[in-house]
Write a structure and sequence with these properties.
This protein is α/β, with parallel strands linked by helices and 163 residues long. The chain contains six helices and five strands; from the N terminus they run βαβαβαβαβαα.
Length: 163
């Protein structure tokens, strides 16, 4: 029996974590690690590091959100990206971000391929319809970079249309 891809779930909203875990679990294709605080999320992330953190970790995807109590650069997403940036042998872990805050500045830094590099930026009220499909594309279709490029291009078009 082959091992299922591991998905790390972390959000301050425990209901979102539980609901995502249920939706993802119903597929039978993934193993989820549910974490309800950043300390546990970081610990789980470190348990899946390879090569003492020098190689890409074994997590297939991270599903997280914004913590409104923290500054932008102190968010879990950027802690993950900072750790990955320490080694030239690491690729970015695919991330799906679920948020109810669609501020343009936050969306811009999350989707920027050189910054947050998020594959999917989903609204908390609408993620149920998209989460499993997005996860399949990322994990089995290996399309995280493509999804990020498309989402970032859409955002850039929105900016240019508003000007």
């Amino acid at each position: 029996m082959s091992m299922k891809p591991v998905i790390l779930l972390y959000d301050l909203d425990n209901e979102i974590v539980d609901e995502c875990a249920t939706l993802v679990g119903h597929t039978g294709l993934y193993t989820t690690i549910n974490t309800y605080n950043e300390t546990n999320a970081v610990e789980a992330m470190q348990q899946y590091n390879r090569g003492f953190g020098l190689l890409t970790n074994k997590l297939a995807c991270v599903i997280t959100g914004w913590n409104s109590y923290k500054k932008r650069r102190d968010q879990f997403l950027f802690r993950l990206r900072s750790e990955e940036g320490r080694s030239p042998f690491r690729n970015p872990t695919p991330v799906i971000l679920i948020t109810e805050d669609h501020r343009r500045d936050l969306k811009q830094i999350a989707l920027d391929p050189t910054d947050g590099n998020v594959a999917a930026y989903l609204h908390a009220d609408e993620f149920r319809e998209e989460i499993v499909d997005s996860l399949h594309k990322i994990v089995f279709g290996n399309r995280a970079q493509e999804m990020n490029s498309i989402a970032f291009a859409r955002l850039q078009r929105e900016f240019s249309d508003d000007e």
